[in-house]
Amino acid sequence: MTQDYADQIEASKALLKRKIPDLSERFHAETQRLTLEVAAVKDEMNTGHAVIEIDYGEIINGAVTPDTIDRFKRRGVVVIRNVFDRDKVQEWNNELHHYTQSNQ
Question: What pLDDT, on the 0 to 100 scale, is given for residue 23?
Fold first, then answer.
């Protein structure tokens, strides 16, 4: 790292300390929150998987549970199953396969 970058990092740290006096406490609280979330993900992975999966019909019918919505908000990722007709998906997969084979 050049001295210029080191100086910029030091200046940024000093600015953050001035603008956010409780930065250390916030960082500690966020670290604790993330530690708990990582433990929850690991626990879910031991019993299946941590990625949320929702059937498209649940969304259309308003049957997605508040717990699932909360998990989605925390994780920021969801797999939505059965959105498209299986035959249409197979058609797209065949087209993609043909394209990649033709274009290397």
Answer: 87
